[in-house]
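Marked as duplicate of an earlier ticket. Keeping the data here for the record.
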Amino acid sequence: MPVTYKAFVYERSQFSGNAAPYTRMRRETADLLFENLDYFQSCNQVKINYDDGQLLVARCSLLVARALHAAFEYVLAKGAVLYREAEPTALILSQAADMLCSLRLTSRKYQTMTSRPSSAQASRETK
């Protein structure tokens, strides 16, 4: 089964307060839905399975869930979307999504790490 995905990466340092990330997540998700509207409208129903994230990011998880709900209901319609809490181990697609997100996060961390000079390199450059 082919899988197409889009990863959004947000860093806490880009935002102050909860309103800004919520607004940006909702807008970017809605934009993605509008870009793929023909596909989503060809479906009888869109299922969104979520596991409420990890305990460490519980507040973020709620923010993400609210932004997703708002974007899908704005672009599609309340009756077109089915939200279900899911155990990530119970659904293969959830496991695939977790893997893709983990790979994207690892890639982002690697890019950030390699774009900064190491402390030894920084110390040589200041001398």
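See parent ticket for discussion. Residues 26 and 67 are 5 Å apart (CA to CA).
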